[in-house]
Every structure is written in structure tokens, then in C-alpha cells.
Amino acid sequence: MIPAVLIGTFGWLLANLYGTLAPYRDSGDLAAAALSLGIAHPPGYALYVLATRAAMALLPFGNPAYQANVLSSLWTAAAAGLLVWALSRRVRPVAAFFGAAVWLFSPAVLRLSLVSEMYTLNGFLAAVILAVVLESGPAGAKERTRFVYLAFFLLGLGLLNQPTIVFLLPGLLWFAWDSSGPDRGEKARTLAACAFFGSLGFTLVAYYPVRSFRQPVLDWGDPESFRRVFRLITRADYGGLKLHPEESRLAWTLPGFVSQAGIYFRALYGELRVWGVLAAAAGLFVPARRRGSGKSRELVFCGAGYLLASPVFILLSNLPAASETSLPILEPYFVMAHLLTVPWMAAGFNEGLGWLEKRVPRRAVPALGWSAVVLAALFTRFKSARRDFSAYDYGKNVLKTMPKDSSLYDPDDTTAFVVSYLQTAGGLRRDVVPLMTLRTFWGYRQIRERHPELAPPGEFRSAPEFISALLARHAGTGRPLYSDHPSKFPAGLPNGPAGLLSRAGNARSLKDFRESQEIFRFYVERGTGRDLAVDHSDGFFTRHLRSRASSALNNIGIVEQNHKEYGRAEAYFRAALLRQPDLTQAWNNLGLNEFLQGRYLRAAEIFRQGAAHAADRGTLLYYLALCQRRMEQPSLARKTLEEVLQVHPGNAGAMNEMGLAYLDENNWITAEKWFRKCIEADPSYVPAHFNLGLALRALGLAEEAADSFREYLELSPGAEDSAKVRGWIRVLSKRRP
Fold first, then answer.
1. How far apart are CA 307 and CA 283, in angstroms?
2. Long-range contacts made by residues 449-457, C-beta under 8 angstroms, separation at least 24?
3. Cα dist. 382→232, 255, 379, 538 in Å?
4. Distances (CA, A) of 70 to 50, 61, 335, 445, 521
């Protein structure tokens, strides 16, 4: 069975691999680092880089990214085969196969097996260590001590592939303690030897300074000194313990614990499905009297590792439960975490098979088991990545957008890593300089040493000061400056859409702007219509990458709309929605396109359709209410605004509009209440102060109305109607008793 599992798994994964660079997270950087024998982004991933570079040298076919993808599949197949081999010696071979199959067909393992990432190698190392623990001899045997030393050596080595393998350390320490004899001196010597072998595996860390001295193409952190090596492997300049620089919060509350528990259970069910969870529970809670020493060893090692690698790790990451990015960010770490549940699932399936054998004919048991496998496979959502070239095409289109000698400012990881791979593996557009990690001393040093022509003169006391000078130098020299999102540019720096990117600089004429958008004609995209749609794509990162085009089309439509070219704007907004039907901004802008032309009925219909499809229906409902007010339908507007406040309870704009709807009906008292609610929710919401003044003036409360108008002028001193409002204040002040 073992060769069949190994060959069958590898062959099936090989048939579904990405044919080139995958859009998954850090794939571009890792493939480029392996190809150039460089140093990948923190913590460096030395073992992955060296192993993948060796595979690239040995494989006689494929591009470098594909070769790295092949190796990821091989690690998964080897881990699955090893699990079946180790567990078949403890449970029925079919039960061992079922347990490994649940892990293999979990979404995280399937996705990570097709891309150039280090997580399947991490899973393979964990599987080897697990097999070593399970196959070691009885406590006190000399043979077992050798197994202990091997496990610690692999752990030390694995830390230079993916640091989360450290979660196996508590179980291994117990394993080492239990492996030595009853003498405490012997136990201490065993632990000291374990530390030695773990350190021996970790000596691969010397790769970083040795390779950095050779100035490789990719040299993250320039780890030529002990301090820089330490900062690299601890991710000191890359977020440290944070999985996401903005969304991870190293602070916890009781509601936060509850939300993290919700993420954990969603992930557990999403990865293992109900059959895996039930099998693991059955295997975990087998009565204690039926556990031998081997099973208690398995319980301690897997239990401690799983608790740290899954629920505790999710709690430490502290990602927002409501964010669509949280589970995709956590997903790769489930490869190792859920591998540790395979012994429990195998034991659970073994219990189930034993129960069946007592109640049905022996010959029927295999048929029932395989029927269950087929049924489970039907519920496993999987889409082959063989024809997915989205990352490769996106990278080439980004490079086509920029003229010679351009800079790409603060790109997202995906954009930066795809460009890095194309420059390293394909030698494409090396004149383009990504301006990355500018807030770190390493990023500053990279600009100084590798691109001195871009570096502003002088010394700088802070990163913001350096960045400001760098951007000013670009503006002064006329070097084209682009970003993959307009929000990346500092406030006050004018910019506009240019193909998939945004370009810094003053607004161009409409003719020049349209000529710059001709670049879309030269983009390469494989597929047509729905093939390119975001919701037609499998996997968060593929969808995220494909959403760049829809966002770009939406931004171009905004420029046309600002020039009152409503017909052209509509075409761009509809093109954006064809690619991403739930793009709230495109629905919003399409409706505003009609609203600005005074076509309130058509605008209302668009906002109504958008509310049914958009990711944020509250925004569309808000603008629907504006249309209803313009069409003199205050009662309908109020009902719509009530829906908005159900979706977004603190929406100050909706509260203000609710007050205006009552103001339209001369219901001054209720209008006043809503304006006060709005100000309470957002004291800086300027229109509410003005509208409250109107309501109070209508109620005859002259002094309070004057105070509201004064507050309005303080918040917006340059308002166009300031002279008129000051006149009202003078009149109201004369009415005071």
C-alpha cells in the first residue's frame, strides 16, 4: 500500500500543479531565492532554499517556479506515505490510509502542495519526527536514545525551514525525558545530548552570513553579522510575532478570546470536515485502559504539538474574526497542525472498522469503507491549477505598464514577489526598481548601495524623513513612480490610474490619460469573460490578484466620471463588475453615474441591484436612500436607512440622512433627535451640526441653533456658505431672551 500511496499521491498532485509561478502569498520570493541561492524574506528559509535549489538542478524539465512546485508535491506525497507506513503498524492499514487521506484532502494541504512554499516541507519534517517518535523502542532502550537524537536534529534543521516546527519541542522534551532510564543523571545527559543534536541541525544558520558575503541578488536583511542574522531569523524588521503588520494585535480581551475560538472551530471544520473531526475525537477519547505506552507517547507528543500549533497559535495571531483575510493568512500553518491529528483520526477509523466487523459480514467492510472515501471525495472542493497563469500574467502586465527606468513604490508582497521572480528567473525589466521595506534600516541601505542614483543626498533621522526625500527626488528627476494601489502614496502626492497601477504626478489632460490606458490592449490574460471573474477563481490569493484588474477599471471610470464623460465611465464600471460582481465601489460609482445626471430612478435601481450583490450592501442602501429622498419619497428613504443602520449601526451618514428625511416632512423634533445621535456617534461629522442648527431654528430654540451653527463653522471654517451662516448666527443671537 505504501508505494501506491506515495506514487498515486505524487502523480495526482503533479497533474494539477501550477504550470509556472503560483499566486499564493510568498511563492515568487521563495522561488527566486532558491533559483539565485539567495536569502528569502524573514526568517530566511535556508533549508527550503537549499533543498529547492538542489531540486532545480536535478529536474531536467520545467521553469524554476514549476520545479519548486513539483518539490512541494513530492514533500506532501512523502509525508502521506510515511504516515500510512508508521500508523499501519499500530492500526489497520485501511484505517491508517483513511486518516492520512483526510489530512491530504484538506484544503490547506491541497493548496500548499501545488505552490512554491515551504509549508509542505515543514509537514514532511513533522511527519518524519512523528514517525521517529512512534517507531522508537521501549523506554530506557539504547536504540530509542538514537531515535531521540535524530528527532532533535531534525527539529533544529526544521527551524531553518519554518519556525513553527518549534511547537513540537514540548512533546520532544517529554519524549527525551521518558526515553532515558530512571536515573536523573542519565536523564540530564540525555537532554544535554538532545540540545547538542538540535544545535547541530541548526548550524545550517551559517548559510545566511556565508551567502550574504557573496552579495546574492536576493539578500534580505544583509545578514553578514550576528546581530543581522538574529534580526532576520526573529523577523525583527518584518513584524516579529505578527502574522500581519496591521491586522494582528498583540493585545487580548475576553471577547477577543471568543472570536479567536470561533476562528479555530471554523478552521477545524473547514479543514478536516465533520468525518475527520469525529474520527479524531473517537481516536482521542479511546478509554484509557486500552492505551499502551506507545499510545500515551502519541497522545502527549501529538497533543502538546497540536495545542500549540492550532488553538494557541490562532490565539497568539489574534487576527480579526470578521476579516476575509484571516483564514487565508492562517491556512498554511494548518498543514503541520492537522498532520498531528492523523494518528487520532486513524485510531478513530480503526475503532469504526472494528465496530463494523462485528456487525456486518467481513467482506462488506472494505466496500463500505471505500464507499465512504468516494462520498467524502465528492464533498471535497478542488480545482486544478494546471491552467492558472494569473500570477505570471499579472507580473508581466505590471512590468508592461511601466516605462523604462521606473520605480515601484511600496508594493504589496504579492506584487513585489512576482516582479522579483520575473526579474530573477526571466531577466525581465531589471531597470524597474521596487522600493520596498523603506521603513527598515536594511531597506534604506539597499537603496544606498544598490541604487545610489535614486538615493537622496544627506543623512536622515527617521524613516518618514527618508521616504519623503526619496519621493521628492523622484519628482525632481522626473523618474516615473508607480504603485500597485493609490492609497500607498502619501497624502498630498497627486496620482492617477495607469493601467493596473497608479502613477504619481499631477493630473494629465483627458487625451493623455486615455492614451495611457491603451496599455490594456497589450495585456495578456488567459481566458475570456467569466474565466477572468474573481468569483470564478479558486483560492483567496488568486481572487485577490484578479481583483487588481477590476479595481483598476473602476479607478479609470472615476477619472472619466470626474470629466463628466458618463458614457465612458459607465463602460468601465460595468467592465469592473463583469470581473468582480461583488465590487462595492463599482456598484456605487455606477449608481452615482446616473445620480450625477439627475436620473434618480435609474440610479435607485442600480443601487438596489448592487445591494443584492455587493460585498458591502450597507453602502449601496445608503445611496439608495439618497435617491429616494431626491425623488421625494421620505418614508421609503427612512425604511432604507433603517436597513443601513442594521448593517452598520454606527453609520453617522445614515443617521444624518434619517434626520433630513424627517426634516423633509417638517418633523423637527424627530429630526433633531437623529442629528444629535449622529453627532454623538461622530462629533466631527460636519453636516450634522449644520442640520441640527436648522432643526433647532425651526423649533424656535435660537440660542441652541446659534451654537450648532458656530460648531459647524469651527469644523469647516472655509465653507462656501460661511457668510450666510454667520448672518444666521447674528439674527439668532438678537432673539436671545
1. 16
2. 454/407, 454/479
3. 36, 34, 9, 8
4. 15, 11, 17, 35, 34
Q: Which of 135, 133, 113, 137 is nearest to 123 (CA)?
A: 113
- Among 80, 124, 25, residue whose Cα is nearest residue 336: 124
Question: Grid coordinates in use for 482?
Answer: 508607480
Domains in the chain, start-ordered, CATH in brackets?
Answer: 2-378 (no CATH), 390-522 (no CATH), 669-737 (1.25.40.10)
The three cell numbers locating residue 136? 522508537
Long-range contacts of 62-67 (CB under 8 A, 24+ apart): 63/20, 63/425, 64/31, 64/34, 64/35, 64/425, 65/18, 65/20, 65/21, 65/22, 65/27, 65/28, 65/31, 65/116, 65/392, 65/421, 65/425, 66/17, 66/18, 66/19, 66/20
CB of 212 within 8 A of CB of 224?
yes
Give the pLDDT confidence score for residue 538 in this predicted structure: 72
Helices and strands per DSSP (H, E), number in the chain: 35, 5
Task: Map residue 202 onto helix, strand or coil.
Answer: helix
pTM (two decimals): 0.88
CB neighbours (10 Å) of residue 51?
18
Please say whether the beta carbons of 545 and 413 come within 8 A. no
What pLDDT sits at residue 213? 94
For residue 43, say if its preceding peptide bond is cis, omega within 30 degrees of 0: yes
Task: State the DSSP string of 612-626.
Answer: HHSS-HHHHHHHHHH
* Cα atoms in the 13 Å half-sphere on the side-chain side of 111: 23
Q: Side chain identity at 609, as an amino acid letter?
A: Q
Q: Which of 619, 735, 647, 680 lies closest to 659 in space, CA to CA?
A: 680
Give the chain's residues under pLDDT 70.
Answer: 137-143, 181, 240-251, 286-297, 362-381, 528-531, 535-537, 735-737
Strands (E), 371-519: 407-409, 433-435, 481-483, 495-498, 501-504
In 3-state terms, the chain is what percent helix, strand and coil (to 5)? 70, 5, 30
The pLDDT value recorded for residue 641 is 94
pLDDT of amino acid 360: 72
pLDDT of residue 287: 46
Q: Which residues contact 724 (CB under 8 A, 6 or more apart)?
A: none
- The CA distance from 392 to 397, in Å, is 9
**How do residues 249-271 score in pLDDT, each as one tens digit?**
666 778 888 888 999 999 999 99
